[in-house]
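To assess whether ligand presence alters the predicted conformation, the chain was also submitted together with nicotinamide-adenine-dinucleotide. Input:
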Amino acid sequence: MTDQTCRDLRVLVTAGAAGIGRAIAGAFAAAGARVAVCDIDDAALAEFRQELPGHAAFECDVSDEREVDELFGDVSGKLGGLDVLVNNAGVAGPTGPAESLSLKDWRRTLEVNIDSQFLCARRAIPMLRASGGGTIVNLSSAAGKFGFAHRTPYSASKWAVVGFTKSLAIELGPDNIRVNAILPGAVDGPRIRRVIDAKARSKGVPVADMEKLYTRQASLGRMVDADDIARMAVFLAGPGGRNVSGQALSIDGDTQALV
Ligand SMILES: NC(=O)c1ccc[n+]([C@@H]2O[C@H](COP(=O)([O-])OP(=O)(O)OC[C@H]3O[C@@H](n4cnc5c(N)ncnc54)[C@H](O)[C@@H]3O)[C@@H](O)[C@H]2O)c1
């Protein structure tokens, strides 16, 4: 039987044209939702339009206030309202000891990873309220509950996501709007390969050793995949998640620390 737990829900996934966001958008579409994504990657947006023709794809850098305002105008026009916002956009940021990092790179990481969530939530809240309630899912990271050496801007931004999520959940509970964060561990895919390469260089160890450390840091001894994250997002938006709010939900194979 097809999963229709999100039938007719109107869903916006930021950075939804590739990676984890694409998996989330696909899972919502498969569960019967009407999906809009935004992204900065034109080629990935074109591919999304081909693969999911009944859904919408817009170009938008979610760290830019004006572009976010335009996006919400477009989403409102296309979907006629909103039930679910998935704040998925995030960048890895620079890798290196804190004293070697530039303020420009620090700020860019926070702009994309946390300012964007504020900008999108601010526009989504009145729409969710108008729908009689809804769900916000914010992507944090295992780096939002552990310290992460040589990735200070990323970790700071992902801890900020958890504080933002828990505070917003309290503010919006009376409006029947639920707000949760998902904290993925290392998600297998091209991005984590880039991250592992950069970390190996920064720490001066072979890439193969760093890769082993990445899988061993989880009790389950493996990375997670994008579909694991997508299933949790769909669960949170559907009937199973109706009393789940203010939570920081780890999907990380029981990661014990970050190397
Ligand atoms: N991949 C992992 O191992 C992992 C682990 C923990 C948390 N996360 C978090 O999950 C989320 C998705 O990660 P991913 O690995 O799919 O990312 P990714 O690097 O694969 O990028 C996914 C998409 O984000 C888009 N994007 C980048 N900056 C954008 C911006 N300013 N505005 C709009 N779109 C933008 C890219 O064009 C790309 O299509 C992020 O918040 C990330 O921090 C990822």
